Amino acid sequence: MSLIPNIVASVCVLGFATLAEKVYAAPSDPAAIQIERLHTALLKSMRAGSRVALTDRYRDLQPVIEQAFDLPLMTRLSIGPPWAGFSQEQQQVSLAAFTRLTVASYAVNFREFDGEKFEIEDIVASRGAYKVVQAHLISPHDTPAGLTYQLHEAGGVWKIVDVYYDGVSELTMRRSDFAAALASGGTPVLIAHLNRLGDSLMR
Question: pTM of this prediction?
Fold first, then answer.
């Protein structure tokens, strides 16, 4: 049975409290540890700021992002049902482009530091195979930004499959964007679109 329908359904449900029990964010929780590692790397990137070139920030963040996120699954979910019709080569190219886009997004968006810090609030453990880690990015000068990470266990490791920024699902936004590209010209147009998005960030 494919995991995609189950995970998409879970991603689209924001009312986790009705299906889940709250678990305190103890340092020993593997999902919390995964998010803490990501936050540590992002803060390091932010503190480096303009002293580090974008390409170097990308290089430093890439292994962290690839370890923390289930990028193959996120690529499939973002593309949706058309993924099944992609050739193996098209799937590999799409995954590479999606990975580059994801790493570049973090390298660009987390490049300035002004006293920010991350705080994990709690963990919601669903009755299925998922956990939701709720956190905030706190700035001395702005309203805290809500970060909600949805993770599932893959090969004994908790991996992120979606991130909600102040309640907005990154996966849902990607899927809408990619659907428009597919509708306009199919797989070649989508792959070109993915590459253009990555290129625009890495300039």
Answer: 0.86
pLDDT in tens, the chain (203 residues): 344 444 444 444 434 433 344 444 445 789 999 999 999 999 999 999 888 999 999 999 999 999 999 999 999 999 999 999 999 999 999 999 999 999 999 999 999 999 999 999 988 877 678 899 999 999 998 999 999 999 999 889 999 999 999 999 999 999 999 999 999 999 999 999 999 999 999 99
For 184, the token pair is 């306009």
Q: Quick one: CA dihedral 46, 49, 54, 58, positive or negative?
A: negative
Domain boundary assignment for the chain? 4-11+19-198
Packing angle of the helix pair 170-202, 54-68 (nearest 10 deg): 150
E strand map for the chain: 20-23, 117-126, 130-138, 145-154, 157-165, 168-169
Which fold would CATH assign to domain 4-11+19-198? Nuclear Transport Factor 2; Chain: A, (3.10.450)
